[in-house]
Design brief:
Length: 403
Amino acid sequence: MILRPTYVEKIMAYAGTPFVKILSGVRRSGKSTILKMIAAGLRERGIAENKIIAYNFDSLEHEEIKTAKRLYDEVKRRLSKGGKTYLLLDEIQEVKDWENAVNSFMTDFDADIYVTGSNSRMMSSEISTYLTGRYVQFRVFPLSFGEYLIFREEYGSASNLHAEFARYLRFGGFPAIHLQEYSADEAYTIIKDIYNSTIFTDIVKRNQIRKVDQLERIVRFALDNIGRTFSAAAISKYLKSENRAIDNETVYSYLSKLEGAFLLHRCSRYDIQGKEILKTQEKFFVCDPAMRYSMLGYTSDSVAAMLENIVYLELLRRGYEVNIGQIPGGEIDFVATRQENKLYIQIAQKIDKPETDAHEYERLLSIRDNYPKYVLRTDAFAGGNHEGIKTMHVADFLLSNEF
């Protein structure tokens, strides 16, 4: 079990505090393993084994306690007789009315509670109702490029940095496919299983969706348009061209459910001059590049979009709020904000023409402030600074500690 200290250290900082610690993220991103790491961390702090109670509600082992009352009675029976009990509840959304149980644990017991969930829409609404001001939430993503390299050193045969980045671009960061050497077909078979379990368990079954084919066509449209702005109306028009009528509200509903299951991430446009979020023509990014390739296949013309996708996810991992920058006559790929910090980023697979070079740099130069500006690329280049704009290889940026 390879440690993921970025998450463990942040979560363990709240150990023993009167807050429910909530780990949320797409299925198979590593939440369950991180929960085991937290249990190990508690033991290292001297917590006795009988005071740590763990349940995985994806397992049939706990099928009989998947209601709030039965879970409450089970935990009450196993509570430590003296001192605090540490509860680790994995995939809590599988428990009917789970929020009632967790709220009661907070009220009735001396308990330190950690939960994981794979559906943000369900959890956020119920958390806000029952646990207002009494929880801290942590987003768990598939492996970052830095974490991927650690896995490759442990389980694979790591090559040079840029070759490994090319592999990461195609195979993504789901931990399960980096525990041994898999072919592309084998890896994408695993990813398809993650996709299917997410679609049918977290979306179709939970929301009682009848038109599954319609939902999957929307997923495919979104995956095929990663890095491009589009609207619900564009999807509706596309489906109508295939003789599958659907209204805009239904499209928005499906997109929201896909976001809720962490398959897609919505990125809004931000008017840099007007300093306001624009509500139309958003972009969507996928939870992991391998998800797109497993569904649509790998094509060389998709690489530029996947580069944006990888940088976008890394910014989210580091706690940035990310938007597409809108300026007169064009866009900045990303405007990333975290408290008082701000970054402007342009991403290019390669810059092989003077007009491309001007396009990437001039847009950043048109922004008249002193926040850091980056051009990220994957080809060879000379020099690292152009009028205050830093040029970096995407792989180096992902491993950098400067942002």
